[in-house]
């Protein structure tokens, strides 16, 4: 009987320990890419081996949603979890000298929720939802680490003049 109780206790402890581990995940959002642009989805003209490797080891999604036809509203919609018609950003409204209209500080975003759940977050690439120092600064929107373009305008050339890193 003692062995049975000990075995059950160990099994429950194992389940508890397993349940406490959070899964790691990578969310990839790409401008101007379609369903058939990656070789893991059947692309024959060029190969995407790193994405293929991640897809083979993880999960492939076969139904996609684009929040808008342009970048900033799509990012806002997906990061905020709302339909574009309810999103704060509805177009690529530019704010001079650098960047797009910032999203408000109190906007609930996926990275803010992930941080609350104990995740470390990182965003790399094109942001376009607020300049450094604004309410829309990536580090004010839940990202622990940001490195990339602040404004979609910078992404129009192959070699940007500068990239931001947590500024």
Q: Could you give the order of the helices and strands?
A: HHHHEEE
Question: Could you state the oligomeric state of the chains shown?
Answer: single chain
* Biggest pleated-sheet summary: 3 strands, mixed
Q: Percent of residues in helical segments?
A: 25-40%
Portion in strands: 5-15%
Q: Identify the overall geometry.
A: globular
Lateral strand order in the biggest sheet: 1-2-3
Based on secondary structure, the structural category is alpha+beta
- Straight-line N-to-C gap: 62 Å
> How many helices?
4
Number of E strands: 3
Taking pLDDT < 50 over at least 5 consecutive residues as the criterion, the unreliable ranges are: 4-8
Q: What value does the average pLDDT take?
A: 82
What is the radius of gyration computed over CA atoms, rounded to a whole number of angstroms?
20 Å
How would you describe this structure in keywords?
alpha+beta; about 170 residues; 4 helices; about 25% helix
What features would you describe in this structure?
The structure is a single chain. The protein has 167 residues and is an alpha+beta fold. The model is unreliable at 4-8 (pLDDT under 50). It has a domain at 65-165. It is globular. The chain has four helices and three strands; from the N terminus they run ααααβββ. The chain has a three-stranded mixed sheet with strand order 1-2-3, with no helix packed on it. It has helices spanning 2-20, 49-57, 71-80, 110-116, and strands at residues 122-126, 145-149, 164-165.
């Amino acid at each position: 009987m003692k062995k049975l109780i000990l075995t059950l206790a160990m099994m429950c402890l194992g389940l508890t320990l397993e349940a406490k581990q959070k899964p790691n995940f990578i969310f990839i959002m790409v401008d101007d890419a379609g369903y058939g642009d990656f070789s893991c989805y059947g692309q024959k003209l060029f190969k995407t081996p790193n994405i293929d490797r991640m897809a083979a080891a993880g999960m492939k999604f076969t139904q996609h949603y684009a929040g808008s036809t342009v970048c900033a509203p799509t990012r806002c919609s997906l990061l905020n979890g709302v339909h574009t018609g309810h999103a704060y950003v509805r177009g690529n409204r530019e704010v001079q000298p650098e960047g797009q209209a910032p999203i408000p500080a109190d906007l609930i975003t996926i990275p803010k929720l992930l941080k609350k759940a104990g995740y470390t977050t990182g965003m790399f690439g094109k942001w376009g939802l607020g300049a450094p120092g604004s309410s829309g600064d990536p580090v004010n929107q839940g990202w622990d680490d940001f490195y990339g373009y602040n404004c979609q305008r910078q992404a129009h050339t192959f070699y940007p003049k500068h990239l931001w890193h947590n500024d």
